[in-house]
């Protein structure tokens, strides 16, 4: 009997061995609470632009889109800036004689004007269609949330609202989180000073790409057109008036063009640019404490509207971290 007991104990100890240790399950990456403060970055792609923005791009394109441009455009701007008594005298000669001759002399008078204006127009178009937003999202345990846009980025240029005296764009909404970590932001409206942001992006992002030494459009145009040479050419071909008079008119014409473009930027903000959007995203709990740490795969759906005309948003995305 004793022998059989020893054998049984030996068999159990050999076959059964120590109890298996079950490792702890890894913490879940699905949050149970969306509460927290998050830094968001977003992307806005606008398919349809406000009419004033389209008109602004068209005016810049007008300098090079005619068969006789940019020579005819430069002549027209110079003549328009002459004293009224001289405009009628110079206009006919400018169209029939000066513009055709200037076309052959552009390499001396304005070698970079055509390409520069095309780059400016293309740059405005890019800014108008595409921007990155810099935001915060604060979510209370109840789900009440505040979304605040504090700046925008155009390429490598960041515009911080506080630094430029622009009020933050603020909207309130509600946030819900389901058991799979899917995040829903209820529809809300938020407005941006679209024209002012375009102007800042134009001066800081587009202008330096055309003229590194210029800080605004007036400075870029002064560098793109040699008004002294153009004034001398006018005086020679018109046959009356001094080279200095035409040079002054050339400079005045370029300054007027710059002022007109900037006035169009400002006029955009006569009506609000407003976004009516709802958001979906995935909430992620990185440290397993039950609260959301990251917001991934965010997508805004809704419309952008200007002066009561709405257009659907395309490729409006966002992501964030706590």
Give a brief outline of the structure:
By secondary structure, the chain is an alpha+beta fold. The chain has one domain. Helix content is 44%, strand content 29%.
Question: What is the secondary structure topology, with strand pairs?
Answer:
Layout: H1 2-15, E1 36-45, H2 51-61, H3 71-80, H4 84-109, H5 113-129, E2 130-139, E3 144-154, E4 157-160, E5 169-177, E6 182-192, H6 194-210, H7 217-224, H8 227-238, H9 243-268, E7 273-284, E8 294-306, E9 309-312, E10 314-321
Antiparallel strand pairs: 1-2, 1-10, 2-3, 3-4, 3-5, 5-6, 6-7, 7-8, 8-9, 8-10
Spatial shape: elongated
Total domain modules: 1
State which percent range the strand residues make up.
25-35%
Please write the string of helix (H) and strand (E) elements: HEHHHHEEEEEHHHHEEEE
Main sheet? 8 strands, antiparallel, barrel
Count the beta strands. 10
User: What's the pLDDT, averaged over the residues?
Assistant: 89
Oligomer: single chain
Helix content: 40-55%
> Total helix count?
9
Decide which structural class fits the backbone. Answer: alpha+beta
Gap between N and C termini: 70 Å
Explain what the structure shows:
The protein is of the alpha+beta class and 322 residues long. The chain is 44% helix and 29% strand. The protein is built from 9 helices and 10 strands. Helix 4 crosses helix 8. The chain starts with a helix and ends with a strand. The N terminus is likely disordered.
Keywords:
alpha+beta; 9 helices; 44% helix; disordered N terminus
């Amino acid at each position: 009997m004793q022998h059989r007991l020893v054998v049984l104990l030996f068999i159990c100890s050999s076959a059964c061995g120590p109890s298996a240790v079950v490792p702890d399950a890894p913490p879940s990456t699905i949050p149970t609470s969306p509460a927290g403060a998050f830094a968001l970055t977003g992307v806005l792609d606008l398919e349809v632009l406000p009419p004033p923005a389209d008109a602004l791009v068209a005016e810049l394109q007008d300098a090079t889109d005619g068969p006789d441009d940019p020579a005819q455009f430069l002549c027209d701007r110079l003549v328009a800036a002459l004293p009224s008594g001289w405009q009628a005298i110079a206009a006919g000669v400018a169209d029939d004689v000066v513009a055709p001759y200037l076309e052959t002399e552009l390499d001396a008078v304005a070698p970079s004007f055509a390409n520069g204006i095309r780059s400016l127009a293309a740059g405005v178009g890019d800014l108008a269609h595409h921007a990155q937003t810099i935001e915060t999202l604060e979510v209370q345990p109840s789900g009440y949330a505040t979304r605040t846009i504090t700046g925008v980025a155009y390429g490598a240029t960041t515009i911080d609202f506080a630094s430029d005296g622009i009020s933050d764009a603020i909207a309130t909404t509600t946030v819900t989180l389901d058991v799979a970590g899917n995040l829903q932001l209820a529809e809300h409206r938020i407005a941006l000073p679209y024209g002012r942001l375009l102007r800042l992006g134009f001066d800081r992002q587009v202008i330096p790409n055309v003229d590194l030494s210029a800080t605004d459009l007036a400075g870029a145009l002064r560098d793109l057109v040699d008004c002294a040479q153009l004034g001398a050419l006018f005086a020679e071909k018109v046959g009356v008036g001094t080279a200095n008079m035409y040079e002054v008119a050339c400079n005045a014409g370029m300054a007027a063009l710059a002022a007109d473009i900037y006035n169009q930027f400002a006029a955009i903000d006569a009506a609000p640019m407003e976004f009516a959007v709802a958001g979906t995203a995935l909430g992620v709990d990185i440290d397993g404490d039950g609260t959301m740490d990251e917001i991934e795969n965010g997508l805004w759906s809704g419309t952008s509207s200007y002066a009561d005309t709405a257009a659907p948003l395309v490729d409006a995305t966002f992501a964030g971290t706590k």
